[in-house]
Write a structure and sequence with these properties.
mainly alpha
């Protein structure tokens, strides 16, 4: 009981042309996706750099409020616990 191997036939000129056309469209779709990912990455990186620039460091959203006191039910973190090693 050996498995039968399928017969491989040569593609006709019309089939090769259709295959080439599909491959080109697939390559263009992949290239478009890569461009989309690249542009999205650049925009996100530039946005992050923009908010880290000194002229934007006084913005309320770019740094934590020093007067903020967390609620009592919030677990302590190194940022919220004051050191007693003085």
């Amino acid at each position: 009981m050996s498995p039968e191997t399928p017969e491989i036939r040569a593609l006709t000129a019309e089939e090769r042309k259709a295959q080439k056309k599909r491959n080109i469209w697939l390559a263009l779709a992949l290239l478009g996706f890569l461009v989309l990912v690249f542009v999205t990455t650049i925009v996100r990186i530039r946005d992050g750099i923009y908010w880290r620039m000194p002229e934007h460091s006084s913005d309320v959203t770019s740094r934590p409020d020093p007067d903020f006191v967390p609620p009592a039910d919030t677990p302590a973190t190194p940022d919220t616990v004051e050191s007693t090693d003085e």
